[in-house]
Amino acid sequence: MRTRMEPAVAVVIEDDETVGRLLDRALRGNGYRSSWYRTGWAGLAGARREQAEVVLLDLGLPDVDGVDLARSLRAELPELLIIMLTARGEEIDVVSGLDAGADDYLVKPFSLTVLLARLRAHLRRRPAPDAGLPVTIADLTLDTAARRCSVAGSEVVLRPKEYDLLETLVLNSGSAVSREELMARVWDENWFGSTKTLDVTIASLRSRLQAAGEHAGAARLPTVATLRGHGYRLDPPDG
Q: At what angle do helices 160-170 and 196-215 cross, to 10 degrees?
């Protein structure tokens, strides 16, 4: 079972080489742990083996109808998020897919940006496996239930957006988090303002954590690394 600090496990079931490779790369580039399968039964086995949380499912598979496969996935993995991707856009096809257990349905051709946004929206609504439990990295602790941050046992007062940013990075520790993902999670899915506010908030967060670490006597803290052209990553301290 994934902890909140690990990337979500995604499985792509798509027989088209171009589409499958594109989806797999997009998921990996946005912090998911992704596997790609070209047949339905291989995808079902992979989702079962990897305890997948997300499946992107093409309906036109060479070995099994995607609607039937969705029923099998739903029966075996009740908590699975299933998003169907298909060229079948008639209302009856959409209804059949949703009735079979899909959570969402995108008709090809679709926008990768929209797909990733829908994934984020669905996953945000689902409680993490250890939701509410404190998370500790070296001398930094987040009490996610109380929204409190402490360094070496002493509470650090953070502004709401600073806390939200830190929690997002902590729960994805070691993984790259894109600027778009941070803006969507911390501000709003439909934010149209300058992303400069993200950089300013990151700088303020770094400053507060550094001051708290020095006050605690050289506490061991994770660092917020800048990934130019992409976003940020929280790196645990060495050793």
A: 80
pTM of the predicted protein model:
0.56
Q: Which position has the token pair 């499912």?
A: 57
Per-residue pLDDT in tens (0 to 9) along the chain, 239 residues: 344 445 689 999 999 999 999 999 999 988 899 999 999 999 999 999 998 999 999 988 999 988 999 999 988 888 889 999 888 767 777 778 788 888 888 888 888 888 888 888 777 666 555 556 788 999 999 998 888 999 999 999 998 889 989 998 998 888 888 888 888 778 765 554 556 788 889 999 999 999 999 888 878 999 999 999 889 999 988 75
